[in-house]
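Handoff note, outgoing to incoming analyst
You'll be picking up this chain. Sequence as last confirmed:
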Amino acid sequence: MKLVTWDVDGYKSISNDQAVEMDQVNVFVGENNSGKSSVIDALIDYREAFPTGNSISEIDWLRKRIRGKELSGEIRFKFTFKLSDEEIEDLWMRIDEVSNLGQRKAERYVSDGQFRRITHQLILRPDPESESGIAGQSNMYATFNRGGETEWRALRRGNLSSAADFQDFAKLPENKTAGKRKAWAQLKEVMQEAMEEWEYIKAFREPEEELDAVRKLRLDDEGHNLSQVLLSLIADQDPRFKKISEEYSRIMPGVEGISAPLRGDQTTVVVEEEEFGEFDLSEISAGSKEILTLVTQIVLAGDDADVLLMEEPELHLHPGAERKVLQLIEDELMRDSGPQIVISTHSSVFVNHDSIDNRVRVKRDVESQLIPTGQDEVGAELREIGYRYSGMLQSDAVVIVEGLTDRKVLRNIGPKYGFDLEENRIGLADMDCKSKLINHSRSLVKLLDVFSIPYLFICDSDVSQEFDGVNSGSKVEAIRGKIIQHINRTGDGDDAEISWEKADENNVHVWHQNEIEAYLLEDQRAVASCFSMEEENVIELLETHSAKDPAEQLGSIVTEARGEFDAREEAFVKKVDVPDLAREVKIANLPPEFHNVMEKIAALVDRQDIIQDNRPDRSGD
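Most recent structure output, in case you need it:
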């Protein structure tokens, strides 16, 4: 049984009416405390409350989960599932056994795929008058094909506290409520058995150091019984144990393998290292334990799980290890017979992969919003611009600049206005060079539009060399127009069919000066301090070389200060000296244009008031 639609309202921090179409591999990506884990939590809690909430006996359960933790309003789970061929056959055979439907009709219903899609709506609300303190509704619908038409029909609609109120659903021989109740009971059992095959891997996994040596083939969601599971695999000569040992060794440098020896009636896990021998589970780090637990669950889920829910699998992993874990997930799970996968993460590594079918950004202001997209819209654009830029999808806004120097200057100078870009969740994406900024601009815009992320391109005026018919003397308005035209062009293959919000003049700023360094050079005192020179000497050098571009002016200053300016020194200046200069600059010595740009950046997250209050001129140009 696969999940087709996730639709939740009133749950934890989730905003109203958040619905997501699910695929085979689903990644929910967001920063810490964005609410991404609530997506998985909702599925776990729904499974606990299924089918009518009768298993929930404490009002405190509802209080911890209802939005705002206030006992007002309600939680609504509405999930659509798709039954497998085997599950449909099992369901109708069960219905036939308890209702005398008839084998021929049951077989026809199986062949027609009746009840293939199931939608269950479970509503839970506080009710002081009920015994548990909880009331609500449980409504079940399914698809039924009649004469080539597919209809949604109600199988069960009723309050949690009342007997099942079955509506007309399928013409069972006994057209009675009792007969339909039997049909509902069989569907309920099939769904419960399917949900028992959901596996859940929590973010924090804590295997016990020693346990009784008993047979366990299923890992619990926190990995407490890891040693028992590994011992059982060894006893069964299950090849998955060897796979677990090999994959753990591949991820953990210096590890040769693992074992789960018996010590009397107890068992533990032993990690074998090349140089330092054997270590019991109690002797290895918490991170190493969590990684071993994660690897074990991934390998086991390939055969045992219908749905695999994974919360922050990147925890305690460096980027190289993250990629190895993702490769393991692909090898073991991303196949036709593999489980449906739902991952919550804040790692861009788990967004990057070609095999990810469904990426959903989770963004939180007060409440959590789910911004879904699909492989066609995101995967192609990430491949176009390079997957290293996928991290920007977790930002609230993005500023795209030409290179590393621009990125560092803006980051270092922001706090002088009382505005820290990182704290305000503004991502800075440097494209390495002018040509990449232009060539990838449309892919960037389409990608950011999918996730509803506001953006601003900032480039030097010498970017004009990238366009035919625009010379270095052209006005910045002409250059900006060319960039906007390039972003908004259509008609290249399938792109003409894709709709995205087109760029306008508010999305692109072209510096009036050739390079951002030119603005920093206007504060000669800061230049003198940065390069340990006399201010008069700096002023003289800048006047002497005033006809040259900013890079050459900087070169003359470096030559005077350090005696040489070769290619290696030029790279050092751009990566180190210029960002340091940005820290030294007083914003009172910067021109209004620079203040305006900082105001545009802050406006991406509606905080332009900070710049307006702190800019020296208190007005634009």
